[in-house]
Amino acid sequence: MAAKFRKIGVLTSGGDSPGMNAAVRAVAREALSHGVEVMGIYGGYRGMIYDEMIELTSREVSNKITLGGTFLYSDRCLEFKEEEGMRKAIETLKRHEIDGVVAIGGDGTFRGATDLSARGIPTIGIPGTIDNDITATDNTIGFDTAMQTVLECVDRLRDTCESHARCNVVEVMGRGAGDIALNTAIACGAVAAIIPEVEFDEKACIERIIKLRREGKRNFIVIVSEGVSGYSEDFAKKINNITKELAENENNDRMWVETKFVRLAHVVRGGSPTLSDRLLATKMGVRAVDELLAGNSDLVVCEKAGEIVTVEIAYSQVLDRMYKGTLKDGMLDRFSPEQVEEMRRLIEEKKQYFKDTYTMMERISG
Ligand code: ADP
């Protein structure tokens, strides 16, 4: 174990997610167990620039594991992207004799972590985001809780849909990623999911709703990912208007599937983390500290097939770009042909998973 670590910092940055507190607690407790002091940095990278931090003793992190949000607060700090902001941040860390940092957040947070690592402050990233949009890890902290919250909300909506023979189009979070929408659509027994990863056949969906209504189905839930921007409200109106017209033409009130639109929005970001998220946060927090103390840097902690592993932040970021189709010239140059091959395979697997899961959902919805 590298003896130089006397003190580390931990922060939460970008969009918050349930389980961030559990991760901070694990980071603090693991570091303290190795005789390393811990500073909690407030408001993400902003706290580094403006020297806002608190010593995290074992008691300071007690009673935090159950809490949603982040007691270290989070912020989007643009100043940190500038050279001057970065310089101030490093000065603060030096003044406090902080030898390493654990940064909990998403993609942007990891870019900051890489900048710190490059300037001589070893930094390890932990994926904390409800969107599950970090391709290198199977699960991000907060994803499970967010899905559980969607499930609870939609189950309630379903009850009232059943009473009144209505449809609810429910928009869920997931910036550019349909993970929350697809999984919750399956678990809520939705009639359809609309996600950015798979092409949506609007006409077929409305025809299916009409067919099912004729057969006597009363509750209709459609889950839409916010990644399919600006679509949900229009689609709700369309189902409503088309079925209303049909009911009028057939002179049969029962064919009108009155359709309401619901945006769950930030409701899904709060709440006490689920068991899975607390476990994941704890394992990742412990691993991040162990990596720092072993002398490693510029890594992101991931979960792959149930194992906690690490990958280089650069690898994780290129993988995400490859997935989104936003790779730029030269970005693959630093990786070996084997690594590039592995990335391509992972992307193919993920895309195939979405297609297969989507068609499975369609087969069993009814
Ligand atoms: P997330 O981490 O959830 O993706 P953001 O993209 O808002 O959220 O990033 C969180 C914070 O990380 C930003 O407010 C900023 O302080 C820092 N950050 C983002 N991008 C960079 C970058 N290119 N260089 C340095 N810091 C960055």
Describe this entry's structure for a reader:
The structure is a single chain. With 366 residues, the chain is α/β, with parallel strands linked by helices. The protein folds into two domains: 2-142 and 273-313, Rossmann fold (3-Layer(aba) Sandwich), CATH 3.40.50.450; 143-270, 3-Layer(aba) Sandwich (Rossmann fold). Helix content is 46%, strand content 16%. The chain has a seven-stranded mixed sheet with strand order 3-2-1-4-5-10-11, sandwiched between helices. Helix 1 (20-33) packs parallel to helix 9 (275-293) and helix 5 packs across helix 6. It is elongated. The relative contact order is 0.15. The model has no long low-confidence stretch (mean pLDDT 95). The protein binds adenosine-5'-diphosphate. The site of adenosine-5'-diphosphate has 18 residues, from helix 4.
